[in-house]
Amino acid sequence: MLSVFLDANIIYSITLTDVLLTLAEHRLFLPLWSQKVLDEAQQAASRTLPQAMQPAFCRRLAIMNQAFPESSIQVSKEDCERYNLPDPND
């Protein structure tokens, strides 16, 4: 099965996340993310979403982890250095 790493900008967007995780539920690919990516998405939500919507965003991240327990991965610094990413924070 194809594995796809979802970055924070994808996870932040409810529309993109919903579409991609629906496809993943149909076993078209395995979504992957790291705790760092989830933390980055949470930080973006805390800066941009109204305070009343932030608990729902946190619940969404928790539900994602429950629905796809195999998707949360550890990414080593060495793995990160292998890729020439445009964003040094990725």
How does this model look, in words?
The protein is mainly alpha-helical and 90 residues long. 56% of the residues lie in helices and 11% in strands. It has helices at 8-12, 14-25, 35-48, 54-67, 77-81, and strands at 3-5, 30-34, 72-73. It has a three-stranded parallel sheet. Helix 3 runs antiparallel to helix 4 (54-67). It is globular and about 40 Å long. The chain starts with a strand and ends in a 9-residue tail after the last helix. The mean pLDDT is 89.
Briefly summarize what is shown:
The protein is mainly alpha-helical and 90 residues long.
Task: Provide keyphrases for this structure.
90 residues, globular, mainly alpha, 3-stranded parallel β-sheet, 56% helix
Spell the H/E element sequence.
EHHEHHEH
- Mean pLDDT across all residues, rounded? 89
Distance between the termini: 24 Å
Compute the CA-based radius of gyration: 13 Å
- Contiguous helical run count: 5
Helices and strands in order:
Blueprint: E1 3-5, H1 8-12, H2 14-25, E2 30-34, H3 35-48, H4 54-67, E3 72-73, H5 77-81
Parallel strand pairs: 1-2, 2-3
